[in-house]
Amino acid sequence: MKRKSRLAITLILCGLSFISCGGKGAQARAKIDIPELGLSMNAPSGWKLDNPRMCSKGDNTCLVMDELLEDKDFLQYAEKLARAQSPRIELKQPTMISGYEAIEAVLEYPNADSKAIKVYIRKGDKLIEVSYVVLAEDFAEFEREIRKSIKSIKLK
Description:
Layout: H1 2-25, E1 31-34, E2 39-42, E3 48-51, E4 54-57, E5 60-68, H2 74-83, E6 88-97, E7 100-109, E8 114-123, E9 126-135, H3 139-151, E10 154-155
Antiparallel strand pairs: 1-2, 2-10, 3-4, 4-5, 5-9, 6-7, 7-8, 8-9
């Protein structure tokens, strides 16, 4: 009888330990899902969903926007958008996201004391912009999670 009691207590303690560890170590990620664009992505860990196209953590934000390209050249227009508000461009590189042509830009806005990682994606006749803007002092802390979020972008 003692053996069964010890086994039961051990199993209960292991179960409680497993439950409590899962709650501390695993943090649910908010998910941005925009059916009309066929876009879904995970928000950076610890960020909250503010609306279907925006998530944030404190003063740091991620926003998904889209517009028709009409007759605009994707590469030239993405360049124009990246240069809006006169940032210093630290990095601009072509990439692919879910098989779609894209450009990633890392921008610094010294007058606003912020930095941004922006991804411009060409999907048919649309330009989709996924824009992460963070305080310059927070950039190093959030960059890894932002890049994970970018890698999670799925387009149908």
